[in-house]
Amino acid sequence: MLLRTAAIAMSAGLALPVLAAPAEADPVLDGQFAVSGVGTNNQITPGPDGNVWVTLDNTNDVAKIAPDGTVSEFNPANVTSPIGIAAGPDGKMWVTQAGGVAQFDPADPNGAVKFAIADITDPRAITVGPDGNLWTASADKVIKIPPANPAGFTSYGATGVTGARWIAQGTDGNLWVADFGGQQIVRVTTAGVGTPFATGGGPQGVTGGPNGQVAYSNPTAVPQTIGRIQAPAAAVTTATPLSDPFGVAFGTDGAYWFAQFATNNLGRLTTDGTYSTLPLAAGTGPRQLTAGPGNTLWVTLDLAERVARIGGVVATPDDSATVQTRITKAPKKKVRTSKKRAKVRVRFDGTSGATFQCRLNKKPHKKWRSCSSPKTYRLKPGKYTLRVRAVLDGTKDQSPARTKFKVVRKPR
Fold it and tell me: What is the C-alpha to C-alpha distance for residues 72 and 347, in angstroms, rounded to an integer?
C-alpha cells in the first residue's frame, strides 16, 4: 500500500532523510465542501460546464460544485430523487429516477424536462455509450436512450443481467454492467448482446480503462475485493478486506481509484495490479467518486455530507525518473516556540546540476517558488506541509520530496 506507507513515513520521520514520494502518483486531499443530502447511491460526475455535479437525497435534488469548491443546490420540478447522473453528448445533464430520466441545461437546472421509461424501476448509473446514445441499466434491463428522442428508447431484457448496479462505457466499444444480483460483470454490445464474467460476491461499481480493460468493486465478496477484467480472460482480483469498496473511477494518472467506505480511504489500483491507499479523515465514509477537471478526483463522503476534492492526480513522465529530490534534514514533527513565529530550517539535495523549487502549504494551491538549501522559514503556529522538487533542463521531479510538521506555541 504505497501511498499509505509514504504518508506514515513522512509523519514519523525526524532525523532521517525524507525521500521522494512514490512515483505512481502524488495526490493530496485539498478541500472538503458541505453538500446536504449526499447518500449511499447518489452519484457524481463532471459536467460540460467545467463544474462537478452530484445527485442528492434531500429536498434539493442536484448540486453543482465549482472547481474552487463553491456549492450551489437546486430542486428542479421535474427531478425527483435522482440517482445516476451524466453529461450527455448534447451538452445537457441527464439523471435517472424512478420511472424515467430527466434532462437539464447546466446553465438552467430548474428548467429540467422528464421522460417516462417504465423499465427504470431501480434507477442506477447512466453513461454515454460508444454509439453516442445514453445507456442505463435497471434491475434486469439494459436500456438505450437516444438523447434527441428519449421516447424512442430500446430496452434489452436478455443480456444476462439480473440486478444491475452500475453501467460504464469501455474502451473496447462495449458497455459494461456491474451485476450485483448475478454476481458478475456483464459486457453488453450496443446491439444488446451480453457476455458474463463471473466475480462472485456482488459487484457494485465498474469503469473502463485502457486497451479494453475494466475494473470493478466487489464489497460482498469474501474477502472483499476489487478486480480487473481483460476480455476474454477471467477476472483478476485484489483483496481489500473490511474496506467496503464501492464507487470506482479511472483517474488522470492512468490508474483506477476506489472509494472505500469502511476504511475511510481511497484505493488506487494500477492497470498491472499494484495496489495502494490514500487515507481520508476518520468517520467520513467515502462512497462514490469521479475524475474531474485539472487532474482531480471528487469523492462523496456519505457520513459527513460533504464532497472531497483530491488534487495532484497526475501521471509521471518517464523522463522524470532521472530527476530526484530528497530532504536530508527535516524539521521535527512538532516545532515548539515561545515567540510569535518559529524559525524552521530544512536541508535538501537532488540530481547533480539541478535547481530547486519549494512549496509550503498551510492552505492548498500555494505556488512553487525557487529555493536553495538550506531554506529557512519563520512560521506562525499551525500545520504545514513542505514539498521540494528538483528541476533539471526544464524537467521537474514529478514525485517531490515532502515533510509534514506542526508549529506549536509553548508558554513562556
Answer: 44
- Residue identified by cell 525521500 is 19
Helix (H, G, I), strand (E, B) or coil at 2: helix
- One-letter amino acid for residue 284 of the chain: T
DSSP type of residue 43 = -
Cell 501511498, located at residue? 3
SS3 134: strand
Residues 213 and 169: their CA atoms lie apart, in Å, by 11
How long, in residues, is the chain?
412
- Joined together, the cell numbers standing for residue 390 give 528538483
Name the amino acid, one letter, at 213. Answer: Q
Question: How far apart are the C-alpha atoms of 158 and 222, rounded to whole Å?
Answer: 29
The one-digit pLDDT tens for each residue of the chain (412 residues) are 334 432 222 222 223 233 333 334 479 999 999 999 999 999 999 999 999 999 999 989 999 999 999 999 999 999 999 999 999 999 999 999 999 999 999 999 999 999 999 999 999 999 999 999 999 999 999 999 999 999 999 999 999 999 999 999 999 999 999 999 999 999 999 999 999 999 999 999 999 999 899 999 999 999 999 999 999 999 999 999 999 999 999 999 999 999 999 999 999 999 999 999 999 999 999 999 999 999 999 999 999 999 999 999 987 654 445 678 889 899 999 999 999 999 999 999 888 788 999 999 876 557 899 999 999 999 999 999 999 999 887 788 888 898 999 999 887 6
The single-letter code of the amino acid at 26 is D
Residue type, 246: F
- What is the number of alpha carbons within 13 Å of residue 319 lying toward its C-beta? 6
DSSP codes of every residue in 88-112: -TTS-EEEEETTEEEEEETTEEEEE
Which residue, 22, 34, 217, 255, is CA-closest to 125?
217
Specify the residue for cell string 532521517: 16
- Are residues 403 and 330 in contact, defined by beta-carbon separation less than 8 angstroms? yes
* Grid cell listed for 177: 454492467
CA torsion 314-319-323-324 (nearest 10°) is 60
pTM given for the model: 0.73
- Supply the DSSP symbol for 151: G
Q: Determine contact, residues 30/365, Cβ cutoff 8 Å.
A: yes
**Is the separation of the CB atoms in 269 and 25 below 8 Å?**
no
